[in-house]
Amino acid sequence: xxxxxxxxxxxxxxxxxxxxxxxxxxxxxxxxxxxxxxxxxxxxxxxxxxxxxxxxxxxxxxxxxxxxxxxxxxxxxxxxxxxxxxxxxxxxxxxxxxxxxxxxxxxxxxxxxxxxxxxxxxxxxxxxxxxxxxxxxxxxxxxxxxxxxxxxxxxxxxxxxxxxxxxxxx
Length: 170
Known about the structure:
It is a single chain. The chain has one domain: Aminopeptidase. About 30% of the residues lie in helices and about 35% in strands. The protein has helices spanning about 15-30, 45-50, 110-125, 140-145, and strands spanning about 5-10, 55-60, 65-75, 80-85, 90-100, 130-135, 150-155, 160-170. Keywords: Transferase. It comes from Chryseobacterium artocarpi. InterPro entries: Acyl_CoA_acyltransferase, GNAT_dom.
């Protein structure tokens, strides 16, 4: 029997579950020797802000939160200055703060998240998805490559340089 997998907006009642998932991801990044997410960001305030601004989304498996991500429409100031070039100048969805519950790790859930994000993007008539990740986040780099995202260059976020990717959806 196939599990029911859905993408929905995060609700304030989800914040502690989301924060727990992000804490797992912070620890995983630390154990992998990464500098990403090792300076107090993201934190519970980040999650609460995402939810209040309606940026927070969760991928659920049979109703249980498996993956968290922030989806932001047309707004990432750091993306206006790229060392390289974006594929497009149209409307875009920015994907930030992707975190998966350890219980669901290794099951292709982040790939499914990106499938749902791309469907969301297409259904809203938005041209592309843009995302950045740390140079040492091998898992995310592999996912982006596998999903057909193009490397566009480097962007400077508050915690350092990131590899930037884009995929044209429509």
